[in-house]
Specification:
Shape: elongated
Oligomer: single chain
Number of strands: 10
Strand content: 15-25%
Radius of gyration: 35 Å
């Protein structure tokens, strides 16, 4: 055997790296062939060389933690907002006895952020049910807009189509009636169209024990104009004066108030959302992805430098590393998004689409960050540092 052959055998023993000939077939370029690239990636994943399982678990744990933390934090803000609306805090009452134009009042629903608007007035006749002899239930005339506001805002009433009165929950309980039933009175039967809740949770009294009778929004004066504003804006309140007829008792000055002020005049949703701790979830995911991608490469620096010494081009090696990193990152994203879909699909979770969007944003910045970390790790791995890598190996 020639001395040259002995030298070749010693070189292979010192650098026992298996090199795919098709990857290094072209010394002028990357030497990369698609089939060889895919085959090398699959081989490294199958043999455990790329530690795909370890990094899949690491990435999935990180993404699930960040996504769930963001979802739970934002869910609390959304639940607080929902509780605020359900309490009636988003409803403004413009009171001007005998001076409110119901048509103008209901027209306010066309304004931005005004979900419902309607007018109401006292009806001195009352309702005298046969089930409660000698007892008169307070009655109010209400426009259709007011009916929608009181039955839809923050509640899920039992409603039926068609004509009929609307009972407060206290009246419905006292009479034992529900939507679709009838009430027998001294003047005949009255259909019950719906039942609305009016709890004693800080909202102003007046509708807790009453019957609402729908009436047309004609030119006859009403006493109050109610609007439900969400999201809240101060600009709408100034438009309430446009509902005044300019008639009635001039001594009764119009008053603007909040139906329920127990939770504050405004909901600090923007501050709560912008000041949440998980605002950094997406940047933290990007930083963690960058570190993970870099570590994926650096823990294999001896192997990679040896492969380059054996003829694998840096370009081909970088593409292989990117493919090997993309697999655990993509699988981790699928696991995290599946967990997100399951969580946001539970009953009682507010605005699932928005919450899923936040989770997707975290995943979208994570994958490119991992790939950038891999590129950084590949660029900082030098063939000339092979001997130093060998000496410092664990």
């Amino acid at each position: 055997m020639s001395p040259h052959s002995n030298h070749s055998e010693r070189s292979e023993q010192e650098h026992p790296v298996k090199t795919n000939a098709s990857i290094t077939a072209n010394p002028r370029g990357s030497g990369l062939r698609p089939g060889a690239l895919i085959g090398e990636i699959l081989r490294d994943i199958r043999t455990g060389t790329s530690r795909a399982l370890l990094f899949t678990l690491l990435c999935a744990t990180l993404l699930i933690g960040l996504c769930l933390a963001e979802i739970s934090t934002v869910s609390r803000v959304l639940n607080d907002a929902d509780s605020y609306r359900r309490s009636g805090a988003s409803i403004l009452m413009f009171q001007a006895p005998g001076q409110i134009d119901a048509t103008r009042c209901e027209a306010l629903s066309a304004l931005p952020n005004v979900n419902q608007a309607g007018a109401v007035r006292e009806n001195p006749a009352g309702v005298n049910p046969a089930a409660l002899p000698g007892h008169s239930i307070p009655q109010r005339d209400a426009s259709e807009g007011f009916i929608r506001l009181i039955t839809e805002t923050g509640s899920a009433p039992t409603a039926v189509p068609g004509a009929g009165v609307i009972l407060s929950d206290q009246v419905a309980e006292a009479l034992g009636r529900a939507g679709g039933d009838t009430i027998v009175t001294g003047v005949g039967e009255i259909s019950v169209r719906a039942v609305f809740p009016y709890p004693d949770d800080g909202r102003k009294p007046g509708l807790g024990y009453t019957v609402l009778s729908p009436v047309p929004a004609d030119r006859q004066a009403f006493d109050e104009c109610w609007i439900e504003v969400w999201p809240q804006t101060e600009a709408v309140a100034t438009q309430l004066r446009s509902t005044l007829l300019g008639e009635g008792d001039s001594q009764a000055r119009p008053q603007l108030s909040q139906l329920n002020s127990r939770l504050g005049q405004t909901f600090p949703g923007a501050d709560a959302f912008g000041g949440r701790l998980t605002t950094v979830a997406a940047p933290a995911g990007a930083l963690a992805g960058l570190v993970i991608g870099f570590v994926m490469v650096r823990i294999r620096r001896l192997e990679l430098a040896s492969a380059r010494h054996s003829g694998v081009s840096p370009g081909a090696q970088t593409l292989i590393l990117l493919g090997e990193a993309l697999v655990p990152a993509a699988v981790a994203v699928l696991i995290a998004l599946t967990a997100t879909l399951v969580l946001t699909g539970l009953s009682g979770i507010p605005d699932p689409a928005a919450l899923r969007g936040l989770a997707i944003r975290i995943c979208l910045v994570f994958v490119p960050a991992v790939l950038l970390g891999v590129i950084a790790g590949a660029f900082t791995t030098r063939e000339k540092q092979l001997f130093r890598y060998f000496k410092s190996r664990a």
